[in-house]
Amino acid sequence: AQKVTQAQTEISVVEKEDVTLDCVYETRDTTYYLFWYKQPPSGELVFLIRRNSFDEQNEISGRYSWNFQKSTSSFNFTITASQVVDSAVYFCALSSLNAGNNRKLIWGLGTSLAVNP
Amino acid sequence: DAGVIQSPRHEVTEMGQEVTLRCKPISGHDYLFWYRQTMMRGLELLIYFNNNVPIDDSGMPEDRFSAKMPNASFSTLKIQPSEPRDSAVYFCASSLRGPSSYEQYFGPGTRLTVT
Description:
A: mainly beta, four-stranded antiparallel sheet, 12 strands, globular, B: globular
């Protein structure tokens, strides 16, 4: 069975702090994608990143960085120098590439991040 | 380019009434997904289409729910009759067909309240 666990339900930080959101996944598949999405208070779901299971290189985009470690089945997301605008619910998701053209995403329950001024 | 468009943005209806939610995917996308989000159950996939054909509707809660995609640029999710427990935010999302395009792009959602 496939599963995504975001153990941190809520995180509260003060602006300019660094914060890491954890994502642990379970899958028996050898090829898969991992995703992060952001849901700000306005409600829309915004795609942030997709990572292929073949590629364990970390990725950095501005203040955002992602650490993918197959050995621990984790795909963690770090926000450096957090800002109030980063306040949102962040979702991690998994999609198998072994199951033919199955496009289902397996979603974590999300981590609610509050960045306080 | 326009993103995924959903209408209405908000819907308030009485129990027993029919509700129709609408979605226009991003042009050129050939996958379309309907999700429901509640505090209790999180984000649930209801059904998804590929090239207008339903591929997996295992998430549709019961016969009161139905979805159609008559063409590549339009889909509906219908609830008949509606019940208070159907109150949720319903999202539509779309994605491209290619193997390196699994990410889904979401619409703004429709907040449904059934009283």
